[in-house]
């Protein structure tokens, strides 16, 4: 799948199931009808692309996503890879880096789980809070090898924004093209200097937990984004919401997918962030990364 013209949400989960490990059914995002309703609304507001970063072991369901895409006319891009501990499937423990990489490459070149639908992204591959476990290191190596072979962009997960610089160090060991790397959830770090250091290293960063004010206030996110834009670095930033729970839907009391368009972007403009910078963060940057 390729991007189509329009706004892209660069880090989402059309469906995901982490409920087994978390012992919480709220983490089983299987709200089909509500997803259709909210995606149709997004389409009406200019959002034409969703990058789904649900991969092997996270409850990825290609048929579900294809049906959502067909019924809403939303362009959905799929991912391959493995998440982080404790959410890794048995195969991630049983196979070595080269075999895991071959599985990823096959999903990129041949298709996912025997389907005709191919992965456009390696991700989200993640690290734990303040540490990279042995298994997570293995997944990062496998992802790096698959990237080097195919040129496919990588989207990472940082737990509460930690260890982004360490992820970059690991990628550099394998000569990953950092222009094609997106370090996710950096807005959860609450540390602008740290985010700027990652950008300075050559990666892209994602403010992709917008609206989750129980972690960080959106006012702080906007202050950081304004400073980044003032330094001429908006071409290194992506925006998204990372909706993963039933309770995130508006019908269940959540903010809903349209919050980014309806509330957050108007606040950015009100605070003096220019439309040209917003267009980079929501449109052209991801087009460049996907190449």
UniProtKB/TrEMBL annotation:
**Transmembrane region(s):** none
From what superkingdom does this record's organism come? Bacteria
Q: What residues bind a divalent metal cation 2, as annotated?
A: 124, 157, 185
Q: Which cofactor does it need?
A: a divalent metal cation
Q: Return the PROSITE patterns for the record.
A: PHOSPHOTRIESTERASE_2
Q: What keywords appear on the UniProt entry?
A: Hydrolase, Metal-binding
Q: Cofactor binding mode, per the note?
A: Binds 2 divalent metal cations per subunit.
**GO molecular function terms attached to this record:** hydrolase activity; zinc ion binding
Listed Gene3D superfamilies: Metal-dependent hydrolases (3.20.20.140)
Q: Which family does it belong to?
A: Belongs to the metallo-dependent hydrolases superfamily. Phosphotriesterase family.
Annotated protein name in UniProt: Phosphotriesterase-related protein
Listed binding positions for a divalent metal cation 1 are 11, 13, 124, 242
Q: Which PANTHER family match?
A: PHOSPHOTRIESTERASE-RELATED, PHOSPHOTRIESTERASE-RELATED PROTEIN
